[in-house]
UniProtKB/TrEMBL annotation:
InterPro entries: Utp18, WD40/YVTN_repeat-like_dom_sf, WD40_repeat_dom_sf, WD40_rpt. This is U3 small nucleolar RNA-associated protein 18 homolog. GO terms for cellular component: Pwp2p-containing subcomplex of 90S preribosome; small-subunit processome. The lineage of its organism: Eukaryota, Metazoa, Chordata, Craniata, Vertebrata. It comes from Nipponia nippon (Crested ibis). Residues 1-19 have a biased composition (Basic and acidic residues). WD repeats lie at residues 277-307.
Length: 444
């Protein structure tokens, strides 16, 4: 008797639930759906639903029923998601407030649809803009292209002895100014961290220039006391703006004060140093030797903290540390770019790379991370179109860059990402700073 009472109470709840379901208001009513309308069944998409020649025309309601029958025959009955009564049974324990919440959820889309935060792999959404230096192409090879750290400006410098600044709008990129350094083909130019100075070294000079953009003065630094070098070419500026690191010959590294441009200390690696990079907090320096070894220096004590061998490297060429200090990329003469995590580099003498990027077939001459550490750009200046963009953390190459069957990049000399990754620029041997808009990033 008790069980009978229980069953009857269950069925009452069920009927109540059914009643609620049937009384639910539709979220949208289309007046056109109410109008009786005949459908031509002889159309090639609907021919198969005719049961006889008498059905050349069916009403919308009949066609709907015919489609339902067809679907159920294919599915072997009504699927659970389409059986509204059964769905309500399984949810009858849910409170009324929940169902109200569901109704509210189904009536709005606004806040629930948004772009994914992280960069997707595979295809990189990008568009090609006019070259950044459209208003003044360099004559010959473009040694450097670099975005200003805070303004929407890009700087180009090259073997034609000029340093030029352009406003980046992606449309016209108007020129701001150019300076000319007489008989001084530029090897490398770089903004200071505050963005007020440009430092430029020459291809065959002991001296270097500092261009003060605020005052408009070009200051020659004739000789750094204590630095006995025939040429000063390669250098790095620390991210905190305190130091400038000059790469000398015979493995010497000269640490200068950025403020006074005076020598603080000299360090030495075994063999010859080919490239160096500061960590984002400016506390360490990674120096890559021609022999394929990486030395990690403490900036404050100038002591070598650790040394490791870059796997399979016959000759080191370029090195970069990601902005979040998670990765180190080492590019070698074979074209292989090894990507390591920094914690492994600091502990092991023979660390295993998380990924060996094998997409370049000639010497890797430039590696750079984007500010969000989602893209690693790798390039070789020894063959045309040799630029690849690698997605992190999947370590896969974006398949749509560079564009095949259309020569555009030629020999890539220098690369840079804008401060918030909105733009990517490649300087080539034809004097152009190619500009690409990365659409995933909304800011400059």
């Amino acid at each position: 008797r008790k069980s009978l009472q229980k069953d009857s109470s269950d069925s009452e709840v069920e009927n109540e639930a059914k009643g609620k379901l049937l009384s639910k208001k539709p979220a949208w009513v289309d007046e056109d759906d109410e109008a009786e309308e005949n459908v031509d069944m002889t159309h090639r998409y609907r021919k198969d639903f005719m049961k006889s020649d008498a059905e050349k025309v069916l009403t919308k309601k009949k066609l709907k029923r015919r489609l339902e029958e067809q679907f159920q025959r294919a599915m072997g009955g009504v699927p659970a998601w389409a059986d509204l009564e059964n769905r309500k049974k399984s949810k009858r324990t849910a409170s009324d407030s929940d169902s109200d919440g569901d109704d509210d959820l189904l009536c709005r889309t606004g806040n629930f649809i948004s772009n994914s935060e992280s960069l997707p792999r595979g295809i990189l959404k990008m568009s090609t803009c006019l070259p950044a230096n459209q208003e003044r192409f360099a004559n010959g090879r473009l040694a450097t292209v670099q975005f200003h750290p805070s303004a929407q400006v890009v700087m180009t410098a090259g073997h034609d002895r000029s340093v030029s600044l352009f406003q980046v709008d992606g449309i016209r990129n108007p020129k701001i100014q150019s300076i000319y350094l007489e008989s001084f083909p530029i090897y490398k130019a770089c903004f200071s961290v505050d963005g007020e100075q440009v430092i430029a070294t020459g291809t065959h000079h002991k001296m270097f220039f500092v261009y003060d953009m605020m005052s408009g003065n070009i200051i020659p630094i004739q000789k750094v006391r204590g630095v006995e070098e025939r040429f000063l070419r390669s250098f790095e500026v620390s991210p905190d703006g305190s130091f400038m690191l000059l790469t000398g010959t015979s493995g010497y590294l000269h640490l200068l004060s950025m403020k006074t441009k005076e020598l603080i200390s000299t360090m030495k690696v075994n063999g010859r140093c080919t490239a160096s990079a500061f960590t984002p907090d400016s506390s360490k320096i990674y120096s890559y030797s021609k022999e394929g070894e990486v030395f990690i220096w403490d900036v404050r004590s100038r002591k070598c903290l650790h040394k490791f061998e870059d796997e399979g490297s016959l000759e080191g060429k370029c090195i970069a540390v990601s902005k979040n200090n998670q990765y180190v990329a080492c590019g070698s003469a074979s074209g292989v770019v090894n990507l390591y995590t920094t914690d492994v580099c600091l502990k092991e003498n023979h660390p295993k790379p998380v990924k060996a990027i094998m997409n370049l077939v000639t010497s890797a001459t430039c590696v750079t991370f984007n500010p969000t550490t989602e893209i690693l750009a790798v390039a070789s200046r020894e063959t045309d179109e040799a630029v690849k963009l690698v997605h992190i953390p999947s370590y896969t190459v974006f398949s749509n860059f560079p564009v095949f069957r259309r020569k555009q990049i030629y020999l890539a000399q220098s690369m840079d990402f804008s401060p918030r990754s909105g733009f990517f620029s490649v300087g080539n041997n034809k004097g152009k700073a190619l500009l690409f808009r990365l659409k995933h990033y909304s800011d400059f």
